[in-house]
């Protein structure tokens, strides 16, 4: 698998980097301090066509490829990992299942405003007793003729409560495991659909994360996504793409921390020389740059495979696992290069250090990524 970014990819990178540096960077510290969602930034990204990058123009998208989407998440995350995940969760978790599994009416009603950035999307899979074991879903959707009655709750939902449209997974046929789970499109504002408090997180604090609470929510029959019982496969296929997004977020956070550390290593004088001259620092930079390059190749090659409609589940898991582990290592070392000043609030590297950690946890912990990779290598040996 070979790939090369095109001039158009690099032009998009430049455009998004400029936006992130001029519009996001000046407010990133205050968003982090105040646990504040950047409404205006998200609206502006919609106007610029970035909230629907990989979706067809006929449905309101930009008609670009998956690598363009990965570059967008990377460049936003280079400045603010929270802003990166807002775009990522919207694009690859909230919008993708409707684009890939929705019927024409659902696409017209939901995909178009999502891809245009007029509405924000989210994905409701995780529950208190169904985290890594997503098949343990307990939320129920009972067929009542014209509608399904939805009851239960979801936790850790990125973009909630800001999102307008939620793809929610619920059990329609109990006691048959993953084949009893179905997917639904649920709108904010429907009676019985409420939210818990916005979580106070270690990092990515400019993104909102909240619980979803369903209390006798009537979901119209036409909002069933795909077929009854297809929900788990829709969730898994969606997460394959989502993992490219999180890998890109990790890469961006790490690249930002590295760029800052590199500049600092050239400027900071100790023992009469820039600290980058000392091998203790230069070796750190060499390791960081190598890991960034490896992450980028893993991500763009998985993105290219998705774009070419090749099976890419294992490659997306590898990219997510590697890039997120690397991001934790790189941000840690970048902070170390800064020494005591890197430990201070208001330093970008301090925020990056906190933002990086979540990438090893969400959209499948890195332990689950290893389960996915090993299952592809070995096949299923049990069950
Ligand atoms: N695409 C399509 N179908 C898939 C699939 C994929 N990638 N992976 C599995 N399936 C199918 C299987 O083929 C199988 O189908 P059959 O029953 O027809 O054979 C079915 O799904 C069940 O598969 P498994 O038996 O492998 O399922 P499992 O219960 O053993 O679970 C798992 C597998 C990989 C552990 C899965 O539960 C998983 O990915 N867990 C992690 C969940 C996760 O990533 N959560 C993230 C939440 S979202 C989030 O974090 C967002 C955010 O905040 C930003």
TrEMBL record:
It comes from the Bacteria. Its cofactor is FAD. Keywords: Electron transport, FAD, Flavoprotein, Iron, Metal-binding, Oxidoreductase, Transport. Coiled coil: none annotated. Belongs to the acyl-CoA dehydrogenase family. This is Acyl-CoA dehydrogenase family protein. It comes from Megasphaera hominis. The lineage of its organism: Bacteria, Bacillati, Bacillota, Negativicutes, Veillonellales. The chain holds residues 1 to 383 of 637 of the full protein.
């Amino acid at each position: 698998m070979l790939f090369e970014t095109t001039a158009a990819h690099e032009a998009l990178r430049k455009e998004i980097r400029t936006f992130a540096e001029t519009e996001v960077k000046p407010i990133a510290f205050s968003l982090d301090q105040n646990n504040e969602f950047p409404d205006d930034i998200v609206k502006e990204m919609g106007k610029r066509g970035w909230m629907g990058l990989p979706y067809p123009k006929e449905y309101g998208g930009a008609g670009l490829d998956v690598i363009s989407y990965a570059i967008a998440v990377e460049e936003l995350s280079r400045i603010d990992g929270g802003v990166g995940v807002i775009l990522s969760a919207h694009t690859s978790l909230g919008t993708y299942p409707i684009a890939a599994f929705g019927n024409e009416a659902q696409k017209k009603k939901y995909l178009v405003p999502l891809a245009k950035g007029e509405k924000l999307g989210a994905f409701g899979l995780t529950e208190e007793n169904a985290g890594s074991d997503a098949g343990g879903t307990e939320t129920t959707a009972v067929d009542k003729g014209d509608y399904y009655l939805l009851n239960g709750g979801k936790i850790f939902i990125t973009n909630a409560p800001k999102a307008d449209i939620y793809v929610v997974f619920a059990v329609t046929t109990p006691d048959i495991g993953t084949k009893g789970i179905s997917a639904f499109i649920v709108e904010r504002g429907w009676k019985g659909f409420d939210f818990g408090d916005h979580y106070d997180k270690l990092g990515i604090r400019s993104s909102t994360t909240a619980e979803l609470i369903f209390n006798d929510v009537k979901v119209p029959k036409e909002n069933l996504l795909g077929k009854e019982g297809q929900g788990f496969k829709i969730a898994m296929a969606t997460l394959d793409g989502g993992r490219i997004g999180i890998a890109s977020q990790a890469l961006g956070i790490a690249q930002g921390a590295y760029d800052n550390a590199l500049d600092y290593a050239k400027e900071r004088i100790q023992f009469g020389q820039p600290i980058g001259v000392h091998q203790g620092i230069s070796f750190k930079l060499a390791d960081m740059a190598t890991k960034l390059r490896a992450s980028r190749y893993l991500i763009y090659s998985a993105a290219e495979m998705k774009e070419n409609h090749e099976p890419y589940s294992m490659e997306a898991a590898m990219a997510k696992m590697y890039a997120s582990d690397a991001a934790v290592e790189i941000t840690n070392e970048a902070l170390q290069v800064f020494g005591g000043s890197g430990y201070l609030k208001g330093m970008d590297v301090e925020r990056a250090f906190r933002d990086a950690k979540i990438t090893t946890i969400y959209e499948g912990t890195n332990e689950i990524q290893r389960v996915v990779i090993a299952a592809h290598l070995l096949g299923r040996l049990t069950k």
